[in-house]
Amino acid sequence: MGVHPCIRQQLSGLQGVKIRCLRDCKERGFTLLELIIVIVIIVLILGMSTLFFASTLPSAKLNGISREMSSMIKQARILAQNKGEKQTLIIDLDSKNYGIEGRDVKTIPPEITARVIDPLSGEVYRGKKEGQYS
Fold first, then answer.
1. Beta bridge partners of residue 97, listed in sequence order
2. CB 128 within 8 A of CB 94
3. What is the DSSP string of 75-110?
4. DSSP single-letter state for residue 123
5. Do residues 98 and 91 lie in contact, with contact meaning Cβ atoms separated by under 8 Å?
6. Which terminus of the chain is more exposed, N or C, with fewer CB under 10 A?
7. In the predicted model, what is the mean pLDDT of residues 101-123?
């Protein structure tokens, strides 16, 4: 019995070996069921990764805002030391803005709740607080 035309070129030199070809040359590819299963698996993986990233987004924003506020406090302190002038850091909890007076003002995202802990008045959730560095 002869070798199927699909694999005749691959077997040059292997004479007398009987090989059974399960599919014809034209039937190469995937079945519809195999494609559907792969698509379902991909959708499940994407759905699970979306849930993971959605849960990490608020904490990433909170970490970013806290780093920005910390660097702004350091910047105000350095400006006060270098220029010899008082620098005022303003945190407006009502309008959700913070910044150094006379410089750029940044906004706190609406999904983040901020509070200021003042040694004299305790925790403050509303209003405008100022801190001076000299």
1. 92, 107
2. yes
3. HHHHHHHHH-S-EEEEEETTTTEEEETTS-EEE--T
4. E
5. yes
6. N
7. 80
